[in-house]
Amino acid sequence: MTSPFEYQCDTGRISARLTPWDKRALGFGTAEVLSIEANAVGAELLLERVEEWACQNGVRYVFGRLPAASRTMRASMERAGYAMIECSITLSRDGFAGLPAVPTRMRPQFRAATLDDLPALQSMAREDFHHGRFLEDPAISHEAAAQRTINWIGDLLDQGLLQAVELSGKLIGFHAERLGLDATHADLILTGAAHRYAMFSMPLWIGALNRLRDRNVQRCSTLVSAANVGVINLYARLGFHYDATLFGYRKFL
């Protein structure tokens, strides 16, 4: 894995990284802008430097997210040929008091996912996930975007982050989270219930949050596609609050 690209000048700074996990599914080189800070005249120069680095590394597709309020930066992205292809919302919750009670018969069980679970969990991802920056980009085929999500499930399993969720002995969904270094904050990476078990989505999310509470985690946060209205409403019912809106931009080189 190559080191992240970083460039700084008098007008600002930018950092980016290659994303070979996306290349596996899409079939061409990809990179992500991690951060950009610049004045009105500096952003386009920084983007040029990233694109030079990207081309040197065989990248064809560059993606990055900006706060919705960054009007000047967004204008620079558009002048540089980037298209806005998705909108995301960051959500968070402090503490886990006041979560709805779940009847015993509806409480799912969480366990570490195994290789035997992988085909079923990947099938759920392929059939039941419809949101995300590649799935919402009209320039990316649905098959390639779905394969990227399928690969993601496998990567989470390899990293030991994937939980299989069962109810009455049936596999109904999955959950993945990553704890911060001090183990007091959790990043909710990916959670989902199979479509045929959608009525258990709320108990599944509550179960995941209760597990964090039991491990003395103090706060959790997540990033959700603004197009995924059902999940956003679910998080609202669970007491999450809105933190920021981000616009996703991409450019083919």
What does this structure look like?
The chain has an 11-stranded mixed beta sheet with strand order 1-2-3-4-11-5-10-9-8-7-6, sandwiched between helices. The mean pLDDT is 94. The two termini are 22 Å apart. The chain has 2 domains: 5-81, Aminopeptidase; 93-245, Aminopeptidase (3-Layer(aba) Sandwich). The chain has helices at 20-26, 43-56, 71-79, 118-128, 142-158, 201-214, 229-237, and strands spanning 5-9, 12-18, 29-38, 59-67, 83-94, 109-112, 162-167, 170-179, 185-193, 219-225, 241-252. Helix 1 (20-26) crosses helix 5 and helix 4 runs antiparallel to helix 5. The protein has 7 helices and 11 strands.
| CATH topology type of the largest domain | Aminopeptidase
In terms of per-residue confidence, which ranges show pLDDT below 50 for 5 or more consecutive residues?
A: none
Shape: globular
Query: What's the end-to-end separation, in Å?
Result: 22 Å
The residue-averaged pLDDT reads 94
The number of helical segments is 7
Topology:
Blueprint: E1 5-9, E2 12-18, H1 20-26, E3 29-38, H2 43-56, E4 59-67, H3 71-79, E5 83-94, E6 109-112, H4 118-128, H5 142-158, E7 162-167, E8 170-179, E9 185-193, H6 201-214, E10 219-225, H7 229-237, E11 241-252
Parallel strand pairs: 3-4, 9-10
Antiparallel strand pairs: 1-2, 2-3, 4-11, 5-10, 5-11, 6-7, 7-8, 8-9
Compact summary:
The protein is α+β, with helices and mostly antiparallel strands.
